[in-house]
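Dear Dr. H.,

I hope your travels went smoothly. While you were away I took the liberty of generating a structure for the chain from your last submission, since the lab meeting agenda had it listed for discussion. I wanted you to have the full record in hand beforehand rather than looking at slides cold. The sequence, exactly as received, is reproduced here:
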Amino acid sequence: MDMLHFKLELPLQSTEHVLGVQLILTFSYQLHRMSTFVMQSMAFLQSSFAVPGSQLYVNGDLRLQQKQPLSYSGLDVRYNVSVINGTSPFACDYDLTRIVAAYQERNVTTILTDPNPIWLVGRAAEAPFVINAVIRYPVEVISYLPGFWEMIKFAWIQYVSILLIFLWVFERIKRFVFQNQVVTTIPAPAMPQGELYKEHIS
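The corresponding predicted structure, in token form, is as follows:
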């Protein structure tokens, strides 16, 4: 399984302490099979503790969430925009509440599941605060609207499968009917090929 190992060291003075972490990791999420889809996504992590820490360790899965199926044809880039507008001069564009709220309005998002945060204490003086994260990319089931020819292809495969089963059942029934004389039958003698036609001279 593919995964990301992320490590961040934050320099701190001896008088500074960390009691909580709010972390946003941004990703470029791309699909190239069945549906062509490109978006800028994120994983949000928030943890707080009562005692100062020296390190935060996180281990989770980046999962795709869909509110509607993707399109089959064309390149879908409706969400290929930065989650955080880094060029904006306005402080409101960096407000965490607004960033998360705008992100949740999307029909397709990513989320960090089962992060299992571990808070380590006992930071030495002048030592940095460390964030260690392991993020896995598991296999996903993607919902999309199939195209016409794809529907025809799978419909034909299903039709042939049902047809073969029907022919096998019909052959078994026909054999049973004739072998067990369920229907009254009168055998007719085979007529030689030469007697099918006779010449009449008038």
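Two observations you may find useful: The beta strands are 2-10, 20-33, 35-48, 55-66, 75-76, 108-113, 118-120, 129-137. The first strand starts at residue 2 and ends at 10.

With kind regards,
E. W.
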